[in-house]
Amino acid sequence: MLFHANVPLHFWVEAFSTAVYTINRLPKPILNEVSPFEILYGKSPTYAMFRTFGCLCFPYLRDYAKHKFEPRSLPCIFLRYNSSYKGFRCLDPTTHRVFVTRHARFDETIFPSSSSHMQPSQALSDFISFHDPCISNSSLLGTNPSAGSHPLPQETESRPCKSCALELDSSRVSSMPLPSISHSAPETVSDMQPPPILHSSNQNSQPMTTRGKAAATDSVYDTFLQCFSKNSPANISSVIYGANNPTYTTVLQSRIKNRRFNATTTPKPIIIVTPLNESDVQAAVVCAKNMSMQLKIRSGGHDYEGLSYVSGVPFIVIDMFNLRSINVDIPTETATVQVGATIGELYYSIQAKSNVHAFPAGVCPTVGIGGHITGGGYGIMLRKYGLTVDNVIDAQIVDVNGRILDRKGMGEDLFWAIRGGGGASFGVILSYKIKLVRVPEAVTVFRVERTLEENATNIVHQWQYAAQKIDNDLFIRLLLQPSTGKVKGTKTVKATFISLFLGNADRLMSVISAGFPELGLKKEDCKEMSWAKAVLFWANFDNTTSVEMLLNRTSDTVKFLKRKSDYIQNPISKDGLEWIWKKMLEVGKVGFVFNQYGGKMNEIAETATPFPHRAGNIFKIQYSVSWEEEGSEAEKNYMTQIRRLYSYMTPFVAKNPRCAFLNYRDLDIGINHHGNNSYDEGKVYGAMYFKANFDRLVKVKTAVDPDNFFRNEQSIPTLPSSI
Ligand SMILES: Cc1cc2nc3c(=O)[nH]c(=O)nc-3n(C[C@H](O)[C@H](O)[C@H](O)COP(=O)(O)OP(=O)(O)OC[C@H]3O[C@@H](n4cnc5c(N)ncnc54)[C@H](O)[C@@H]3O)c2cc1C
Question: Which residue intervals make up region (Disordered) (predicted)?
Answer without folding.
Answer: 174-213
